[in-house]
Amino acid sequence: MAETDQQERTEQATAKRLDDARKKGQVPRSRDLNTTILLLLSSLAFLVLGRHMLEGLTELVRTGISIPRDRLVHADRLVTVLVHDFHLALILLAPFLAVTVIAALLGPLALGGWAFSTESLAPDLSKLDPVKGLGKLFSAQGLVELVKSIAKVILVSVVAGAMLWRFRDQILAMSYEPLWSAAAHGAHLIGLSLLVLSLALALIAAIDVPFQIWNHGRQLRMTHQEVKDEFKETEGDPQIRARVRRMQREVAQRRMMEDVPKA
Questions:
Q1: Residues in the chain with pLDDT values less than 50
Q2: In whole angstroms, what is the distance from residue 204 CA to residue 174 CA?
Q3: How far apart are the first and last CA of the chain?
Q4: Contacts of 13 (CB under 8 A, 6+ apart)
Q5: How far apart, in whole angstroms, are the C-alpha atoms of residue 36 and residue 74?
Q6: Is the pTM of this model over 0.85?
Q7: At 149, which helix (H) or strand (E)?
Q8: Contact 208, 151 (CB under 8 A)
């Protein structure tokens, strides 16, 4: 029955159906696009701000472990020091956190826009149906998700292997560097690796975005009868409107005939 219904849904979704779906929070989404944007902007921010954050946090830890004894034995003084250090750490991390928050908001905005709906927060018991779950698992959507997961595992493995091989000499030399220098060097390599990984994931996102748009339109397709019913709801029954127009023409003709003798 579901297959027959799906075969009958050959009509593109109307503007009203798309609008109703959006009100319910049903818009095209790409998790791969969201992940790519978040990882790309975060890695760039880490490359730019990482050294400054690491220096500040290192100094904060150094001063934190050298708290005077008189402050340790007084709870109120210790709390004051901890609150002060927490504020300093928050200030150091604030720019990076701001970039990650903005990146997390840009993903949904780039595809589908922001669509908040309370209906999507309501529990849906149909999602617990094992039959529907198996249907989704073996559907086109499930197959695409499986292919993407395999591709992402391969990409991560290739990027990690390539970065380790490319910077193998520098990684080995870090064991001879001072602690601070090795930490800064390692942070830079991590940021660079995340940047390369985000660029690789952009390839998957470039394929996933068109698929999600197409799949969203496919899920909202309508049967011919649904299109007719919606037209009746919005414009009225065509038969009734035709009858009204016919009656209006008859009334106009009678008036014309009545006006002829007067002329």
A1: 1-6
A2: 34
A3: 67
A4: 21, 217, 220, 221, 222
A5: 48
A6: no
A7: helix 140-166
A8: no
Name every residue whose Cβ is closer than 8 Å to that of residue 191 and which is 6 or more positions away in sequence. Answer: 43, 46, 47, 50
Tens digit of pLDDT for each residue in 185-236? 888 888 898 899 999 899 889 988 998 888 888 888 888 777 777 777 766 6
Nearest to 29 by CA among 154, 130, 157, 115: 115
Angle, in degrees to the nearest 10, between helices 140-166 and 130-137: 60
- The widest CA-to-CA distance across the chain, in whole angstroms, is 117
User: Can you give the pLDDT at residue 223?
Assistant: 82
> Tokens in use for 192?
């660079």
Sign of CA dihedral 83, 88, 92, 96: positive
What lies within 8 Å, CB to CB, of 47 at 6+ separation is: 188, 191, 192, 195
* CA–CA separation, 256 and 263 (whole Å): 10
CA neighbours closer than 13 Å in the CB half-sphere of residue 73: 3
Could you tell me which residues are beta bridge partners of residue 222? 11
| 138-143 contacts at long range (C-beta below 8 A, 24 or more positions apart) | 140/215, 141/215
Half-sphere exposure of 18 (CA within 13 A, CB side): 11
